[in-house]
Amino acid sequence: MRKATGTFLPLIAVDRRSPQPLHRQVYDAFRAAIASRGLAPAQQIPSTRLLASELGISRIPVLNAYSQLLAEGYFETRVGAGTFVSSSLPEQIEEPQQIPSVARTKSRPRPIARLASRLPSYEPTPWLRGLGAFSVSQPALDAFPLKIWANLVARRCRNPLTSSLQYGDPMGLRDLREAIAVYLRTSRAVRCERDQIIVVSGSQQALDLAARVLLEPSTAAWIEEPGYWLARHVLMASGCRIVPVPVDEEGLDVRAGIKKCGNARAAFIAPSHQYPLGVTMSASRRFQLLDWARRSGSWVVEDDYDSEYRYDSKPIASLQGLDDTSRVIYMGTFSKVLFPSLRAGYIVPPPDLVDRFLAMRHAMDVSPGYFYQAVLAEFIAEGHFSRHIRRMRTLYAERRAKLVECLGREFGSSMQLMGTQAGMHLCMKLPKGFIDYKISAEAARQNLWLWPLSPTYMGKSPQHGFILGFGNTTTAEMPTVVGHLAALLDKRSGF
Question: What is the mean pLDDT of residues 303-309?
């Protein structure tokens, strides 16, 4: 039996002046709501007393309507629980008067913004739909200290503050911003104070906020090639002119970017662990980029999404920490280090831009939700966050090493790996003749979540390969899933 949902008062209107009896009006309203799926199977229906009070009518017409709906099988009762929409109704229910769909009506044109039409339709590709081996951006959820988190949540629920029900500070909870500032100064060498930090709903909102504040339609912006596809979507939505700048073993090729468009308004980059290639931007390239931003009056948006995890050296300091002219806007997220559904991140604009970022953030979303900000602030303040990072660094190092070992055993020197020194994914390039997205679609049907490399390119000659996440795959599972990958690739075709 399907689990019942909560009781909500349906939208029912009665007209005392209508020649139709009140009980029939109530009956027709419920039947139409069920037929249109406004009321779902197994959804609980309010009591006759409550509905009568809400409609301002006698209880008798409501009782008569409920009785008829029960007799016809639209409602069912459960002893001690109440009245529910029948859980055995068919998918399609004939409705006496169907409302014409938009497609069948004759109406005027239905215009939308030109910028909105630039974006591709939201259709999750097969490799984005699953949770499991090789899926990118999935942390080790089995290793998250869920009991500690649950205790903090329960503590907040037992001692709620009335003030927490009001709109909050658009910059975010003060205690959380203080904790983030201490963490960033200590661990990432970011030059920041609490009052520079704006809490956002993950790095995607941070990217969108930066684009809204810094860019105008038709202005040029650099983006890494290959690069993060959702960052590309943000820039498409902003209407700016996207300039793809190649990435090599040293990161973004600054000279190539200057040659292509030296007066770009901004550069969107991930210097500590580039997505998808996983390379770290060299010191010389970092200084070249900062020098270009200073001379051209441009901005650099630094996405520092998973730089906490480095395995062969200490974490690389942020680019923002090297910037002495306040040209870098720094952003980060808790999605990779904690869990994605938390939807919490932050952006650190230079002091003179905080007001503009804050005004735009308030216009977009008013303020972030209070509850999980408060829980996260306590999670950090009590030391759970730093301990979790240390544990995950060791765990991911083991999983990365096992993945590299298994790939080497299966493929030898016939394939190229990139980005094995940091983060939660690595990049595997394929020889010519392989079409990565076709293999990824086939793999998804076998519960193997290979993210193809080629869609991360804007150019017409992309490199084919796979972005292999290892955060949520145990070392014990690694040989099996790599063997599965080898079988899909067919060793006779180049390996």
Answer: 86
